[in-house]
Amino acid sequence: MSQLSVPHLLGIKNLSVQDLELIFQTADNFKDVINRPIKKVPSLRDITIANVFFENSTRTRLSFELAEKRLSADVINFSSSSSSVKKGETLLDTVNNILAMKVDMVVIRHSSPGAPHFLAKYIKANIINAGDGTHEHPTQALLDAFSIKEKLGSIAGKKVVIVGDILHSRVALSNIFALQKLGAEVMVCGPNTLLPKYIGQLGVKVELDIDKALAWCDVANILRIQLERQQIKYFPSLREYTLYYGVNRQRLDALDKPITIMHPGPINRGVEIHSDVADSEHSIILEQVENGVAIRMAVLYLLAGAGIEQ
C-alpha cells in the first residue's frame, strides 16, 4: 500500500503534493465504496479510533464517525462537556487515559492552536487534526480541493476566492495552503477588519470589493461569520455585512460566466449566502459533504498504513 510521508495529519503545511494526490486517489476509490448497496469495507477492522472533541461540532464529528464505521474501525466518542476535563484534568492526561484503553488513532478538535501538534510529540498514536483554534482544519481543505478537482477537472491554474471571516477561520488557512500547493491562484475577500494583518505574506491576492472578486474567480468558497469567536464588533451589523458581502442571485447573474459556489457549513442563510445561491445549480455544497466522508476514509486508511515511528 502506498503511504503518506507523515504519521499524523496535523495540517496541510506538513503534506507534500504527492501526499495530496495520494489522498485524492484513495478518496476516489472510497467514493465508489460509499455509493454501493453495502457501504462497508473491512480495511480498519483491527483499529480503534477515538474522536476527542473539546469544541462543539456536528458535521465534522459525524463525518469522521461515519468514515470510521465505513472502514469497520472500532470507535470511541469523547466529548469534553461530559468528561473529567470539567474537573480540571489536563489535555495530556485525558488523552493518555484514552490511550490506556489501547486506542490506535486520535481525531482531535481543540480550541487551542497547536493542540494536535502537542499531542503528536508526547503520545504513541496517529493524530488527526479536526480543527485547532483559528489555526488549521486540514480535512476540510482536502475535501474542498477534492470537490473543486471533481467539478472542474483540475486545480492548477484555477482562480479561487475565499470570502468572509478570514481572521477567525481555520478553513481559510488550510484552504490557502492546499490550493497553492496544487497550483491554484488564491484571493481573499472581506471587510478589512476581518482580514488578518499577515494575509499578504501568504502570497494571496486581497480584494475588498465582492463583485470584483466574483468577476475574477472560477470558484467562490463562502465562509460564515464566526460570531462565537469574535470578542469585539468587527462590522456595524449583520444586515450591513449582508448588503456588502452577501452572495445572492443578483450578484451571480451580473457575471459574464458561471462560477462554482462552495461553503464549508454551517450556512447562515440570508447572511453570507442566500438560499437562491446555496440551492442553485452553481452550488456544490452537498457534494462537499459527501466528499468529506470519502476524504476522511482516505486519510484514516493511509495513516493506519503509515504507523508510528518512535
Which structural class do the helices and strands define?
alpha/beta
- The CATH architecture of the largest domain is 3-Layer(aba) Sandwich
Count of domains: 2
The Cα radius of gyration reads: 19 Å
The total count of strands amounts to 9
Number of helices: 11
Which fold name fills CATH's third level, the topology of the largest domain?
Answer: Rossmann fold
Q: What is the percent of helical residues?
A: 25-40%
**CATH class descriptor of the largest domain:** Alpha Beta
The overall pLDDT average reads 90
Lateral strand order in the biggest sheet: 7-6-5-8-9
How would a crystallographer describe the biggest sheet? Answer: 5 strands, parallel
Strand content: 5-15%
Judging from the principal axes of the Cα atoms, what is the shape? globular
* Uncertain spans: 228-232
CATH homologous superfamily caption of the largest domain: Aspartate/ornithine carbamoyltransferase
Kindly, what is the distance between the CA atoms of the first and last residues, rounded to a whole number of angstroms? 21 Å
Q: What order do the SSEs take from the amino end to the carboxyl end, as H and E?
A: HEHEHEHEHEHEEHEHHEHH
Would you kindly provide a written description of the structure presented here, covering whatever features stand out?
By secondary structure, the protein is an alpha/beta fold. The protein is 39% helix and 15% strand. It is built from 11 helices and 9 strands. It has helices at 17-34, 59-70, 91-99, 115-122, 138-152, 170-181, 210-216, 238-245, 249-253, 275-278, 285-306; strands at 48-53, 74-79, 105-110, 126-132, 159-163, 185-189, 205-207, 219-222, 260-262. The strands form 2 sheets. The chain has a 5-stranded parallel β-sheet with strand order 7-6-5-8-9, with helices on both faces. Helix 1 crosses helix 11, helix 2 packs across helix 11 (285-306) and helix 5 (138-152) crosses helix 6. The longest helix is centred in the last third of the chain and has 22 residues, at 285-306. The chain is globular.
